[in-house]
Known about the structure:
The protein has helices at residues 36-41, 51-54, 59-67, 95-110, 129-141, 155-158, 160-169, 226-241, 257-268, 279-284; strands at residues 3-8, 46-49, 74-78, 114-120, 147-150, 173-174, 176-178, 197-202, 245-250, 277-278, 294-295.
Amino acid sequence: MTLRIGTSGWNYPSGxxxxxxxxxxxxxxxxxxxxxxxxxxxxxxxxxxxxTFYGQPRATxxxxxxxxxxxHFDFSxxxxxxxxxxxxxxxxxxxxxxxxxxxGIEPLAVSGRLGALLVQFPPSFHDTDEARGYLEWLxxxxxxxxxxxELRHRTWSxxxxxxxxxxxxxxxxxxxxxxxxxxxxxxxxxxPGNSELFYVRLHGRNAAQWWDHAEAEDRYNxxxxxxxxxxxxxxxxxxxxxxxxxxxxxNNHFSASSVANATMLKHMLDEPVTARMPAELxxxxxxxxxxxxxxxxxxxx
Length: 301
């Protein structure tokens, strides 16, 4: 399957932007044994795993993900933040750190269900000689996996030729990101590049709350309109025509708006939308009306 569309994470049980009662049933309305990942995987063919960013992955957890999802479903996994966030240097990372991470995702890799390893850097990671050296070390260290690198500071696009050459030398995809743009933001044109992967992350365009927010989830309180998604869908279609394996992940997760937008993208790209969605989701996001079949409101079941 050369086109995969999903969301960044599947579990948002709390906060004002919870998915509970919108995409997932309320606890009191769930059948015995209801499983969020299984439910999600009945509607999308991939997910980006957030938990591996906050802590080293465990092989037992990965095996559980595999058992709860169909054989065609794959996982893109975020690299543990110790490798990508402040304080990272090759000298600060131990062999044990590397081996622990690799062991944790091994079940996904050997089963052929690891979509990509996402190397997500923060805006504070600027293009310097030292940073390029560290990035090259990281690409070599995880060379056995399909890699996608997210860079956010404009210095990387200011020297786009050198950045592209470094990533191409290691067969890594340069993650294309849609987000609010500021003076320091990276500039990207969503070109397919030379990697076998075309990897896109859509964070929403909530500029007003991107840096100034009461809760971190507020940053992702944004719903893309069909008009905003259309050019992105066209870029994905063009990359797919070139034989790329296309990954589109929606990270505007507040109140399951990412679910709504991922479904809209599936429809735009002629992917079947056959699994029923909760009526609550369509009620909240009317753009889905006529696109997805629904099942009755949970309280009426």
